[in-house]
Design goal:
mainly alpha
Length: 85
């Protein structure tokens, strides 16, 4: 994972993917609450939107922090692991 996290192109792809997954989850949960009639009124939907947007921000920050943690040298594989000797 260190090799992927230190490659700028792959890191960008991973960031886009994790942000997309976090957004998809939060948007899907908001849609679930609306379509199942749990948040019926406009006020409840607005409140639910704020909650899920906040959760999206928290999840996005945590995902990006976990990706940047893999750039640390402690996650580098030793040379023996690459060569198989």
């Amino acid at each position: 994972m260190h090799d992927i996290a230190t490659n700028p192109v792959m890191f960008t792809i991973y960031v886009i993917g994790t942000l997309s997954a976090a957004f998809h989850f939060c948007n899907g949960m908001w849609s679930f609450l609306v379509s199942w009639g749990i948040t019926i009124g406009p006020r409840a939907q607005r409140f639910s939107s704020m909650i899920w947007m906040a959760l999206f921000v928290v999840m996005a920050v945590m995902f990006i922090m976990s990706l940047t943690a893999f750039t640390d040298t402690q996650f580098e594989l030793p040379v023996e692991a690459h060569t198989g000797k």
